[in-house]
Amino acid sequence: MVNIGDTLIWFRILLILPFTSILTFILTLIICSQIPNNIEPDQNLPQISELGTGQAHNYFMSGFIVLIPQMLIMFIGRLQFLIQSQTIIHRAIIYCIHVIAIVSGIFVLIMAIVSLDDRPHIHDIGAIGTFGSISIYCILHTILIIYLFIHRSKAAKHANIIFPLWFLGCTIIVITCSIIWVITFASIPEYIAAGTPFLYFLAFAPQFWTKAKQLQHVTNLNFAGHYSNRTETKSEYEMS
């Protein structure tokens, strides 16, 4: 019963992480845009990395460092859910896909710590690695979900068509905007490409919620059974 309770708390924490991560990302960009940096005065929408220059670097670094553990825990939770919710895809494949997502945390850390002012090439490696690893994760994870939906007769928890459509739509947006950004170096496609993965991760929440509800139901049944056994034992003792 203690194990179920701990697992229930775990999935409740996972439930809020897709929302807190997108909030952390947005707040970081907003705060950095209000702090003096090295952006040209006439530049309306700077590149994301440029927001972390000058005095804004410490805020940029702090925001993304706070974001990293939220994303890593969320990826671990998603890995756990996929292993527990189906048996038709070997867990080694699921592990490999999520290793890519976890590696993205290293690139985010590099991007956050190394300022564009000091070592632009190393910062760019972190930024490109972040975009690349998260994009690859979204592509592979989407393929996995579509495969599970196609074989939904053997994976009942993946029978909802909304999830593969949502993941596919977000992945297409990420890929398209990333390509446009690389070709044009325009800011708007970069912001869309950087923000869309957080919308992608929001689809994790309903399945975390479903898992938490199932565990709550099991907890309630165990509690009811435990209480019933105690009542029966007490009644037998009084009768004797």
Automatic annotation (TrEMBL):
The chain crosses the membrane at residues 12-36, 56-76, 88-113, 125-150, 162-185, 191-209. It comes from Rotaria socialis. It is a multi-pass membrane protein. Belongs to the DRAM/TMEM150 family. Keywords: Membrane, Transmembrane, Transmembrane helix. InterPro entries: CWH43_N, DRAM/TMEM150_Autophagy_Mod. It is found in: Endomembrane system. Residues 13-210 form the CWH43-like N-terminal domain. This is CWH43-like N-terminal domain-containing protein. The keyword RNA-binding does not apply. GO terms for cellular component: endomembrane system. Its main location: membrane.
